[in-house]
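Extended Data, panel c. Modelled sequence:
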Amino acid sequence: MPETSRRGLLFGTAAVSAGAFLTACTSNEPSKKEPAADSRPAADDKPGKHVTIGFAGPQADHGWLNAINEQARSRAETYSDVTLDATEGSNDTAAQIGQVETLINKKVDVLVILPADGKALTQVGLKAMRAGIPVINLDRVFADPQAYRCWVGGDNYGMGLNAGKYIGEKLKDKPNAKVVELSGPDSLELTQQRTKGFDDALKNYPNIRKVARQAADFTVESGQAKMAQLLQAQSSFDALWNHDDDQGVGALRAVQQAGREGFLMVGGAGAKSAMDAIKADNSVLKATVLYPPTMAASAIDLARALGQSKGISGMSELEIPASVTLFSAVVDKQNVDQYLPTGFN
């Protein structure tokens, strides 16, 4: 899968979603807390200065990417003092650069950009910043930190790490346990980070050995084909770490067609279909590690706060952070009801 056609690089452990920390930061409701003793601008006050946010998101050719666009639009609609000027979304680098330049020429107040290719769009990010339009860089990071005011995104290493920890704890008492991995495309840095996190976690469990790995393409079809190969090559194993819930749909089909069982599967991203399967508890899929698309809603929260010169409720600083890395929570049968509302189609 080309890097320009799929998602790029997925806060507190109890957060239901990425927006949990930031939802209050720009709420239209008055703060229930006593006013601060200083003159720091409140981040959770009533509607304030109107802010036009330009949003350049991805083409919705994947469940997670579609959820990114929906999260941005729906969050903007909750604010009476926000206008969202959204592009059609593109995974073509040149087309997206043109879209961002159009938003710059419109003189929007803040830009939220999930670049098709972070390196390729760095120059247009720099152009916006130099024009006095602050940029919220969403997920796929620009090559130059001067190209954005704040980065918001997921933790791919942490995603693999938490998947490995979950599997490790489930298999820690099983001698000579074997695991397999169904990754994303090896050409993507995010895939490499997820695999490294997983491998590092397994180092803490000397009884567990990874015996096979296949790289899929974040699609149902590739998930099914590559999982079939894993099943054919490995007559038995105890756990599967699958990087993506979309390709996981195909992986489950392959498992069912082969009539295989006796192992646990951990998915990735947090699709509703995966959470429904986890809740039903009628397949090998027992957990998924989140890479929350709610990061787009949080980016809108931050853009509004930035446009209104506010900080974040619950933090003492006058300004929004320079970066926000989301936590990759593990969702299993014990907590799936809590996370189901965040699942994406």
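The radius of gyration is 21 Å. This feature is highlighted in the accompanying rendering.
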